[in-house]
Design a protein that fits this description.
The complex is a heterodimer. By secondary structure, chain A is mainly α. Chain A has one domain. Chain A is globular and about 60 Å long. Chain B has 14 helices and 2 strands. At the A-B interface, helix 4, helix 8 and helix 10 of A face helix 6, helix 11 and helix 13 of B.
Chain lengths: 307, 330
């Protein structure tokens, strides 16, 4: 295991973590404020990617496509909120799970119908193509660094919004105790629409940003969704800080686990079983981590809700 | 305390009464179905109904912890998968006798339930849903990495389970009745548990865990036993599924499968064991029906789910109740 490879994998892990954070941020707010399980958050990420591809085909400019995709995703998300989600806030989690599961089934099939089952690709914007030299003999693609930077920027923006604005204060209060906030005269439904729309846009943003280095295909939101849930549960539901740290943790553990589990196992066992066991352990690692965290801290690392 | 426990609430009495007629009808229909099927495409109908019953067993187990225990598990497919893999892996080593594979399926899924339950049950509500999901995913990835047993591609079960070397399940009709018997026994056992003293504590813990704890019950242990029972019954379903499909695959454990089981429970009406049978039948028949109409049946099925949640609270049984309440008893 060389230092160069290690550095690259750490960066990949960061990039993955940042992506997870973009998705988990919206999820944890929606979850925290309205106690609403939105399984359909993952398909909004997928939709972001598809919309970016579609608008890129129309305009030929990544930035314009990105803006249009975000706007379209926002409209679509608010439409879903208006038609379906708003009727589910008072229901139990089970019913929320089923209804949003129905939306996943529908949208996965819908994108297949509209864009076909074959994976689509989106080119990296001209100025960000290529790689930069991290250290002698070690290249790293610029676009991944752009993703990391934009994710950190969004994180900073969210920190300012949540910690230093009035809306942010209401969101934090809502995550702690939505009922009291509502009793104090705040229109919690409107607050939630804002939060929801913002979360949708963040997920779509993640989808559009990752589209150039990932194949855009139906079902791409499902795996990410589960990981985002792992993130917010580890971080503590409703906690932005928790989501951020947990996302980076999960991103790093998963990426490093996948790259080095086999090598590490080889130190203690013969190569052939190590090659079999390694990937299995690597793919389980984050779930084991989650189980451990919840065993010792059943409400996550940064519990928010006052119970 | 004995008095409160002996005086069940009105809903409870209604349930207990209704339990007589509808489940009897369900089982009667299932018992007669093969006779009716003989006039039509027999093997198709037998196969479909066998699948319905196999999933009904798993859905019933889920309904047991979900509807009665208030524990919404999003990883129930893992138990089904473990039961199925017990058959598959033993079969790959030439062991097909159900005197070995059936106990193995039940025991392994029960052990998995005990181990994961110990961790999961420390958490509540959303966290419980998510951690069961995580364990489900874990089982899914473990199965996918079993390279000697097919890995992601799964594993063919070359021969249905035998009993003392006698391959009596090879006949589809016999197999059908074997599955029906399993469903019936699972139903009776789970129902007996629900109405037993254990079941009362288990249900009480859903209503108000603090009160149960104050009454001196160790809620955690009761819930864990309930979770293990549900896991074992899930394993039974997996045992039958491996025999029905003659194939096992990690896909049996995917989180979508767990979601489907929850849908079945909700379709039938949560908290009434036989509702899970109706729910499983409804789910699989709708899937079959829509699949026959168009390849893109999911475009219809997804919104249908949303509509069921929004407008048919209590599932099909609840809907029947509403209709009866409006027209029948008025």
């Amino acid at each position: 295991m060389s230092t160069g490879l290690f550095v690259v994998q750490v960066l990949n892990g960061l990039q993955f973590g940042v992506l997870l954070f973009l998705i988990a941020a919206g999820l944890t707010l929606v979850f925290g404020v309205m106690d609403f399980i939105n399984l359909a958050h993952g398909v909004q990420y997928m939709l972001g990617a598809y919309l970016a591809v579609a608008f890129y085909a129309l305009t030929g400019n990544f930035l314009i496509a990105l803006v249009l995709a975000l706007a379209a995703a926002l409209v679509f998300g608010l439409l879903l909120e208006f038609l379906v989600f708003r009727h589910l806030y008072d229901r139990d989690h089970l019913e929320q799970v089923i209804a949003t599961f129905g939306i996943i089934i529908f949208l996965n099939q819908a994108v297949k119908t509209v864009w076909g089952a074959a994976p689509l690709t989106l080119p990296i914007p001209e100025i960000f193509t290529g790689s930069i030299v991290l250290m002698p003999g070690l290249l790293y693609p610029v676009w991944r660094l752009v993703i990391i930077a934009s994710g950190l920027a969004v994180g900073l923006l969210l920190y300012v919004l949540v910690s230093h604005t009035r809306v942010g204060m209401l969101v934090r209060a809502g995550a702690t105790n939505a009922r009291i906030v509502s009793a104090l005269g705040v229109d919690i439904r409107r607050l939630f629409m804002i939060v929801f729309g913002f979360g949708t846009m963040l997920a779509a943003f993640a989808g559009a940003m990752i589209a150039p280095i990932l194949s855009v295909e139906p079902g791409m939101g499902d795996t990410v969704l589960i990981l985002a849930f792992v993130v917010i549960v580890i971080g503590g539901i409703g906690s932005m800080r928790g989501a951020f740290l947990a996302a980076l943790l999960i991103g790093l553990v998963d990426t490093l686990g996948r790259s080095f589990a086999t090598d590490i196992l080889r130190l203690v066992m013969p190569p052939s079983p190590a090659r079999t066991v390694g990937p299995a352990i690597a793919s389980m690692l984050i779930y084991v981590l989650m189980a451990l965290v919840l065993y010792f801290r059943p409400a996550g690392l940064f519990p928010v809700r006052g119970r | 305390m004995a008095q409160t426990l002996a005086a069940p609430n009105a809903l409870h009495v209604r349930r207990a009464n209704r339990v007589g007629v509808l489940p009897a009808m369900i089982f009667l229909v299932l018992a007669l179905a093969p006779a009716g099927a003989a006039f039509g495409p027999e093997s198709y109908v037998l196969g479909l109904f066998t699948r319905v019953m196999v999933f009904a067993i798993a859905a019933m187990a889920l309904d047991f912890i979900c509807g009665y225990g208030g524990l919404v598990s999003f990883g129930h497919a893992a138990f089904v998968g473990i039961g199925a893999y017990a058959v598959g892996i033993l079969g790959a080593h030439g062991i097909t006798d159900m005197l070995v594979s059936l106990p193995a399926a039940l025991l392994l899924s029960a052990i998995f339930a005990y181990m994961t339950g110990t961790v999961c049950l420390r958490t509540k509500s959303v966290y419980f849903i998510m951690i069961t999901l995580a364990f489900g995913q874990m089982a899914y990835f473990i199965a996918g990495s079993l390279a000697p047993y097919g890995g992601d591609d799964g594993l063919t079960v070359r021969m249905r389970s035998t009993l003392l070397g006698f391959p009596f399940l090879q006949n589809d009709r016999t197999f059908y009745y074997f599955v029906l018997l399993s469903l019936f026994v699972s139903y009776l056992v789970l129902r007996a548990i629900v109405y037993s003293r254990f079941g009362r504590v288990f249900r009480g813990a859903r209503e108000n865990p603090t009160r149960m704890a104050t009454l001196g019950f160790d809620v955690f242990r009761f819930q864990r036993v309930g979770y293990v029972i549900a896991g074992a019954v899930g394993g039974l379903s997996g045992f039958l599924l491996a025999n029905a499909a003659e194939f096992v695959s990690p896909a049996y454990m995917s989180w979508q499968r767990s979601g489907e089981l929850i849908i079945m429970v909700l379709f039938g009406g949560i908290g009434s064991l036989h509702g899970a049978i109706i729910g499983a039948a409804a789910y699989l028949l709708i899937e079959e029906l829509l699949g026959g109409i168009t390849e893109q049946w999911k475009l219809i099925f997804g919104p249908l789910l949303v509509l069921v949640v929004l407008f048919a609270r209590g599932g099909l049984l609840g809907l029947a109740d509403t209709i009866r309440g409006r027209f029948g008893r008025g």
